[in-house]
């Protein structure tokens, strides 16, 4: 029965404008993954392990919290690092002024400053360059330490767990 209430509340949140404060529901029942999805993002942009979040609906300011930093590699190509607190300004299909998330490109760690949804792609910008990937690659959440290549042992939770294949390297946004 509680799952029906949570599901119904989630439907109400998704159907109401994201920046309104009058949604009629109890936000304590929502996770950071629910909030991300209500703004049009797949939950897989957040790794498993978010312990809490803050959302100011009037400004779109969003923060997600982890117990510690989180690092992992996707397909042995991209190394990603999440600080224990990440934040930004969220709106429908766009997360701007992102802080706390970085990607290793060649030998350099670059901050991911924006994530956006366009049609069936998810775009990531590091300011001077961006890359787009099929949104379906982010249906599942990666796990700290092993990304999507976890062996299924203790601590592996594939039920939340980003499947995927790389589509585009970081390219110039000019």
UniProtKB/TrEMBL annotation:
Coiled coil feature spans: none
Nucleotide-binding recorded as keyword: no
Keyword Iron: no
Keywords: Signal
Pfam family, one: DUF538
SUPFAM superfamilies, alphabetized: At5g01610-like
Superkingdom as given in the UniProt entry: Eukaryota
Annotated signal peptide: 1-22
Cited InterPro entries: At5g01610-like, DUF538
Protein name, as recorded: Uncharacterized protein
UniProt organism field: Helianthus annuus
